[in-house]
Design a protein that fits this description.
Elements lengths: L2 E5 L2 E3 L5 E8 L6 E8 L6 E6 L6 E3 L7 E6 L4 E6 L8 E9 L5 E3 L3 E5 L2
Parallel strand pairs: 2-11
Antiparallel strand pairs: 1-3, 3-8, 4-5, 4-9, 5-6, 7-8, 9-10, 9-11
C-alpha cells in the first residue's frame, strides 16, 4: 500500500524546536521531489520547503529561511523537516507531498499538527 505518514508534530513553546518526519511505504522516496506544506486555520495551504530527488537541492519559503532545514535519508525512506526558533505563526497542520521525477505520481500524507504557543 502506497502511503506517506507524517509524525513529530505537537505543542511547543515559542523559540522551541520540533523535527517532523515523513515516512514512505509502498514506494521509494529517492525518485521523488519531496515537499512540506502547511495549512493554518482559516488560511490556504502553502509551500514551506522542498528537496530535489537527485542533487539534494532545497528551497524554503522566506518566512522559514534560516530556521527550518529539510533533509532526506534514503536508506530510511524518510524526509525530515527540522524546525527551530518556532513562532506562533508557524502553527499549522504540516503535510508532506511526494512527486515522482516523471510527474506521473503525486502522493500526500494526512498531516501532523504543530502548535506553537506559550
Amino acid at each position: 500500500q502506497v502511503q506517506l505518514v507524517e509524525s513529530g508534530g505537537g505543542l511547543v513553546q515559542p523559540g522551541g524546536s520540533l523535527r517532523l518526519s515523513c515516512a514512505a511505504s509502498g514506494f521509494t522516496l529517492d525518485s521523488h521531489v519531496i515537499g512540506w506544506f502547511r495549512q493554518a486555520p482559516g488560511k490556504e495551504r502553502e509551500g514551506v520547503s522542498c528537496i530535489s530527488a537527485n542533487d539534494g537541492s532545497t528551497w524554503y519559503t522566506d518566512s522559514v529561511k534560516g530556521r527550518f532545514t529539510i533533509s532526506r535519508d534514503n536508506a530510511k525512506n524518510t524526509v525530515y523537516l527540522q524546525m527551530n526558533s518556532l513562532k506562533p505563526e508557524d502553527t499549522a497542520v504540516y503535510y508532506c507531498r511526494a512527486i515522482s521525477v516523471l510527474g506521473d505520481k503525486d502522493y500526500w500524507g494526512k498531516g501532523t499538527l504543530v502548535t506553537v504557543s506559550s
